[in-house]
Amino acid sequence: MWAIYLQFDEIADGRPVNILNMSDEFTRDAPSHKRSLLNHPAGTMAVFDQIHELRGAPHLLCVIDRPRFITDTLHNLCQEQHIQASYSESGL
Q1: Is the terminal CB of the chain with fewer CB neighbours within 10 Å at N or C?
Q2: Domain at 2-88, CATH from 3.30.420.10, 2.60.120.260, 3.40.50.1010, 3.40.640.10
């Protein structure tokens, strides 16, 4: 099972900064801690694709903080790759 969590903050001048955390919940390995000043679903998908290419697809993808993060692209990817997806709010 992989878990994806996107943290939001802003730097001193008010620009948003996002940190994408992705972890393998079985091995406790964290293959991604990417930082970005932009919030682009395409960037998240690029990271997912890179890790998927190296490790293969997870059987379960747990997406935390869904309302601010989940995109149709990720949902479609899970359906196409036969990945079970689980969505939860932060802190649950």
Answers
A1: C
A2: 3.30.420.10
